[in-house]
Structure formats: C-alpha cells, structure tokens
Amino acid sequence: MWKKDCDRFEYLQTLVTEFQDTDSDEAKEQVLANLANFAYDPKNMEHLRQLQVADLFLDMLTEDNDNFVEFGIGGLCNLSMDPECRDLILQSDAIPLVTNCLSSPREETVLSAISTLMNLSTPLSRPRISDVAILECMLRFSLCESPRLRNLAHVFLQDCCSEEQVIQAQQGMAGQMQTALGIPLPKD
C-alpha cells in the first residue's frame, strides 16, 4: 500500500492535521483510532515521533470523552513498545496520566493502561510503576471476574514487582474492602 516512505509520513501528517483542524468529536475519534492502529506498526514509529503523536495521545488521557481516553491510551500502549517512544513517553512524565486510566469504567482502557505501565517499566521507572497504590490496584484487579483483567494484573505483579513488594502491598490491604476502582470483586 505504501509506495514511498514519504507517502507514509505525509499520510500520517494529514491525519494529525485533520485531528487538529476538525471540530467534530466523531471525526477526532476516527482519526485517533487510526493513529492508534498505525502506532502498532514499527515502520511508522519514526514518523509518529516526528509528528509528536505521543503528546497527542497523552493529551487525550485527560479528556472527558471516554472514547478519546480509550483511543489515546491504546495508541500510547502501542507506541510504548518501541524503546525510543517509551523513553519519550517517560520524559513526558506520563506515569500519573496512565495510572489515572486504571480507574476507567471501560475494561479496554484499563487493560491498555496496565499494558502501557508494563511497557514503560525500566530500571529507572520501576519504582514509580511499582508504587504501593498501583500494586494494591493490581492486587484488586487480580481478584476480579474478568479473566483478561485478572490475568494481566497477575502478569504485572510477576513482571513489574518483587515478591517482597507484593507481600507488603497485600499486608497493607489486609481487612480492606475487596473492590477494584468500582469493579465489584468476589468477597472471598
């Protein structure tokens, strides 16, 4: 489909410009969804970095429109798989914005937020990503009914935290109500 690399850049640039120029939320949602999908392809990473699409996705995380947030965190999740994009995202102090997505009522948004945190985990960022509040959230998610959310929370706890950190978080939660940010969990 792409004949030249410059055609690819121009197309992505057209999408970014369309997002910036339109007043239609529906059009913005379509562009965000397209950009998030393009962020999955490593061939697009350099162009997306040049166009500062990570900043666009980060800006969406504070929007009131749940679709903007979902597509923004989905795109950020895809971009964060690339080491250079991951470093740019970390330099933007994105961890608090991503962490806020853990309280979304949309499971896809929460799954993308957990995956993004895992992708952003480096030796330097790990202390912020394995913060006790995030660990407690993951422990709650590990008890929920959704297998996708439960399993991803378990992977996060195994890959991004030490066993000692998990035990400390469990002890800190002892006796607390077993809910995960509005997601009802089993009592036992």
Number of helices: 12
Strand-residue fraction?
under 5%
Strand sequence of the main sheet, in spatial order? 1-2
Low-confidence stretches: 182-188
Number of strands: 2
**Arithmetic mean pLDDT:** 91
Outline the fold blueprint.
Layout: H1 5-21, H2 25-38, H3 45-50, H4 53-60, H5 66-79, H6 83-91, H7 95-100, H8 107-119, H9 126-129, H10 132-141, H11 147-160, H12 163-173, E1 179-180, E2 183-184
Antiparallel strand pairs: 1-2
Helix pairs in contact: 1-2, 2-5, 4-5, 5-8, 8-11, 10-11, 10-12
Write up what this structure looks like.
This protein has helices at 5-21, 25-38, 45-50, 53-60, 66-79, 83-91, 95-100, 107-119, 126-129, 132-141, 147-160, 163-173, and strands spanning 179-180, 183-184. It is elongated. Strands 1-2 form a two-stranded antiparallel sheet. It has twelve helices and two strands, in the order ααααααααααααββ. By secondary structure, it is mainly alpha-helical. Residues 182-188 have low confidence and may be disordered.
Descriptive terms for the model:
single chain; 188 residues; mainly alpha; two-stranded antiparallel sheet; 12 helices; 67% helix; disordered C terminus
Describe this structure in a few short sentences.
With 188 residues, the chain is mainly alpha-helical.
